[in-house]
Write a structure and sequence with these properties.
alpha/beta, Dihydrodipicolinate Reductase, domain 2, 15 strands, 31% helix, globular, homotetramer, 355 residues, 2 domains
Amino acid sequence: MIKAGIIGSTGYAGAELARILLRHPEAEVVWYGSRSYVDESYAKIYGNMFQLVEDSCLDDNLLELSRQADVIFTATPQGFLAGALTEEILGNAKVIDLSADYRIKDVGVYEEWYKIKHKSPQFIGEAVYGLCEVNREKIKGARLIANPGCYTTCSILTAYPLVKEGLIDANTLIVDAKSGVSGAGRGAKLPNLYCEVNENIKAYGVTTHRHTPEIEEQLGYAAGEAVTISFTPHLTPMNRGILATEYASLKKVRQPDGSYAFPDGAQVKAVYDAYYGKETFVRVLGEGAYPETKWVEGSNFVDIGFQIDARTGRIVMMGAVDNLVKGAAGQAVQNMNLLFGFPEQEGLETAPMFP
Amino acid sequence: MIKAGIIGSTGYAGAELARILLRHPEAEVVWYGSRSYVDESYAKIYGNMFQLVEDSCLDDNLLELSRQADVIFTATPQGFLAGALTEEILGNAKVIDLSADYRIKDVGVYEEWYKIKHKSPQFIGEAVYGLCEVNREKIKGARLIANPGCYTTCSILTAYPLVKEGLIDANTLIVDAKSGVSGAGRGAKLPNLYCEVNENIKAYGVTTHRHTPEIEEQLGYAAGEAVTISFTPHLTPMNRGILATEYASLKKVRQPDGSYAFPDGAQVKAVYDAYYGKETFVRVLGEGAYPETKWVEGSNFVDIGFQIDARTGRIVMMGAVDNLVKGAAGQAVQNMNLLFGFPEQEGLETAPMFP
Amino acid sequence: MIKAGIIGSTGYAGAELARILLRHPEAEVVWYGSRSYVDESYAKIYGNMFQLVEDSCLDDNLLELSRQADVIFTATPQGFLAGALTEEILGNAKVIDLSADYRIKDVGVYEEWYKIKHKSPQFIGEAVYGLCEVNREKIKGARLIANPGCYTTCSILTAYPLVKEGLIDANTLIVDAKSGVSGAGRGAKLPNLYCEVNENIKAYGVTTHRHTPEIEEQLGYAAGEAVTISFTPHLTPMNRGILATEYASLKKVRQPDGSYAFPDGAQVKAVYDAYYGKETFVRVLGEGAYPETKWVEGSNFVDIGFQIDARTGRIVMMGAVDNLVKGAAGQAVQNMNLLFGFPEQEGLETAPMFP
Amino acid sequence: MIKAGIIGSTGYAGAELARILLRHPEAEVVWYGSRSYVDESYAKIYGNMFQLVEDSCLDDNLLELSRQADVIFTATPQGFLAGALTEEILGNAKVIDLSADYRIKDVGVYEEWYKIKHKSPQFIGEAVYGLCEVNREKIKGARLIANPGCYTTCSILTAYPLVKEGLIDANTLIVDAKSGVSGAGRGAKLPNLYCEVNENIKAYGVTTHRHTPEIEEQLGYAAGEAVTISFTPHLTPMNRGILATEYASLKKVRQPDGSYAFPDGAQVKAVYDAYYGKETFVRVLGEGAYPETKWVEGSNFVDIGFQIDARTGRIVMMGAVDNLVKGAAGQAVQNMNLLFGFPEQEGLETAPMFP
């Protein structure tokens, strides 16, 4: 049984971490950190935890926590961990960061998109981007995990095999993503009020959303070259879920007879299966099947479907995740499992809840 | 590992049973019965089960099923089980009925409220009303469990201790209940369409809802006399959850000094605690705390709060459940656990999901 | 064409006033008051008003406004108008107050429930409670209108004729009310965030909600004696709408043959029709018909239905309104129409929007 | 006062027509046609119309209706009007068809996408595509109006000026559209049940949705050449509203100094303003402003915003409509106004409802 601490445990992602870890057979939470609620009963803040969590919230003293815990999760605002992380902390405990501080290798790109100065660029190099299906082996030996963003997890995994195998032109990629409101966090802000969001859909952060360079970096590794994409997030009236609808131009690929032609559905499916056929948490629905966010709610699954459009020479890929699970806390636990040698699906086996 | 069969596995309650049993360490589902979908892939009908359930649906041949299974769950329309149950079936397997067929001991009352002829009244006597917190010991030895209704589970448990201990006059009880839409089932009916239900609240079945006599019977046992109540269900725009707001006149009770007075909050709380203090699945929030359906979503909990109103001499009790879990499938599994000697909370430990 | 000013025009009720008055043929808004948004473009704050309202927000200088306007609407926090109203203002312009400052005749009751000192009790006497269907003639000559609360409008109108005619015992009245979230206002508070409210229902303010004494006072006038009731509001996941489910014990009334008996459905219906048959904005659905909030959305209607319960000797009355229209801004405009001799339905004829 | 008939008056679009026409000062509905509800009270089917509409439903006898009405609206399934329309009917009354039967000029394209044989292709030629902002003058003299689809109205108007003026390459256009559930109609189908749609988002009809060729045809006229686009609709958990997010590659345009360069925001805005500056129902929000469906709910507005992405050389255009108003019934009434010489905005001036 390892000991885990959560800094930022009273945001929605932190609370989902607390919820998942509560039933994890190999980990126990010893530190519910929350700057806003120090000394307040956790179960008063999250009524679902009544009689399940007896703890009160602690502060965000990372060093002290690192002495008490084997693993630290930081579900904190951008810049917090970068400003607090030290070699000593990393020497004491593994750190899984749910913020973006160590996701982007080029610190200049980070600072440009996030509009903040990075305070500990020296750790960027060793941080492993915790997209388990892509970086599994690297994760196992890491001290510092940069847990991927919600939109990015969904967007990257949906396109990754086709970019990697050269079936699509990554520079034509357009990701139109729709997210539930929990992605906006638990801050008391007018735009997130029920009456502002309910019965409403809108785009936001058009051309400027910070998950854009993260997707570009990872798909760039797959493509073997720099990639520029369009990414548009939308706020959708539901609690949880992200659906990414992704458009790209197909590339002609070498056929068995030596000629070059656009791939057909079976070929695309075969590529997806080659990458994800053995993955527990990626479910390839196949051609003509469209994922729905509700089918993955509460689970760590990514569901992927696609449709080839012969008229336009494009493919439409669709991916769905629960933004708080595979898009945040679930993937963080999956990373923890890899770091400590637990079965990868430990604590994450809940079937999606429907309805 | 016992073998379980579900008749009516493609309704919402049946699907929740399938979902819970999927992760139950002591049971496996060997029969997904569904008259409407025989031979169809279960995971096509419920996309959340993709790659988790490989089975196709079978028919509703109870006798055959009883030979293959240790326990049968019937999540079927009223009258189905009453028309199909036999001594042979009960000899082969335990039966947990999620319909109302064996809940009401007086067959005349059943036939009056349900407007159907009961076809096997001979089994009513031995059926045990599966409200675990009240009938735990009786359940353990039963062959046939009448799993309580969703509204009734919530309504009864919320008032039960106060009726039993004589703190309230049960004949003044008014239960105003609000339910999510999943309680209406998965039938394709116009009133359950999204646009008819969304942004809308209405009462239905006023003075005639079939859960009324079920509540009256059970609270009558607690009161030691026949009880007549008012019960009004409402359809609320949410998937899951029941909130029962219950009003009753307080009765004067003997005080430590020998006088008689209305109970105060502490006395009421003490009564609740005496009944539920050791219960895993009943959480007494106490006076001035109001349960919210979201705090129990996806879990087998009943949350109970109350408020005394000195001005009117009434008490307002409030109870919240997830109608598909404690109100149906979860309680059915809890009954199964009791029947087979498993830990009562086995398979039911998921913390409520929020948000 | 009269000139109108709105103080508090950027709350939801104020915005609904602005929306209704925009299409009112006899009134124009000359003052969009908003302490929080002085000098900001109104259409930036409410995007629906883009290109419809060109004004920027002004402050809350009531005296100055009273010199420019014929009528002032105050959609302001409790205590604001009581602290600002003067004889001079009332001499300049009619005032329709959407807050509770002048609704309750007994200043002690006001101060007890609202926990604030009333700063201008000298105006309470002349203020007319603007429930148009009850106080129509008094309203016409008034200077100061106390526009009823949202819950109270619905709760009172639903029970009023039966209390007035002695068909029910008002002291047995229990009002279980369910409201959409817009009733909580546009303040950026955590409990009103989308993810906190969505897929959730809860009671609040149990036994202490401030609309209680307002209902009691008005039904007391109808009963001819002081009345004490139970009132419980609930927060429901929808933008608009209030449904009040009201329970009361029937009283025996004199029958044509001279005997006394409980009224039947036809008798109850006849009483409702006698009071509301000629009312434009009250629609009596009758026995066995249950109002739905969606059927009145966006309109000034109150829909009323009922069901007699012979088993318990009670009647269940149900009323539905749009809390922002008949429950606030619509009724305020109805009052304005009465004050200025316009047709009562002017500007309020929009049919309810469905779905 | 003209007389109007509605065939298909009990679908959501038909009901919205009934609602708008109820308050139209120049038109009255004399025929509520509904094959499913003949002889049933209209107000029983749509409770919002209680005491507002006294009529019962009639059948779909177009010829008889054409003798009684000046204008006929057909809100009917694909193929109905094509199978029923005659020269005699068109001689008697104007016909505004909300189905797709006469929208597409090439009958082969119609039959390919709709998978039905067109039964009266002889009327296709004279039918005018009723997109008022584009075809205003042609509409005025027409007998037969093909009222545009909901997705198409939004998608076309959002891109039209930029295609027409050559600022974007229409063949790169990708339309990712999100619709409320009312677009799916009032049929009692499982996928439209509350619990299936709520808390869920999914794509459907990917690459095959029938609105695709309609968009292509109209934008083809603007481009002056055949156009092929990608169109993906999504089902979003809300009653009303369509948001179209549209992506296209910018084209270099001649600048004042004679050089060629990508247009900047001001140039794009100027083009939009040139086309829509005088339009009542199109509101150009401008660069960096993102439309929200809630801001147009219940109104006939189209709100348009955009963002240029210098990194990718693309523009993101966004348009929002209420699918039942500008996307169906409102635009149909706008067409009626044009046909009969009424002010174009008559009956359509309701400000959007918020929240």
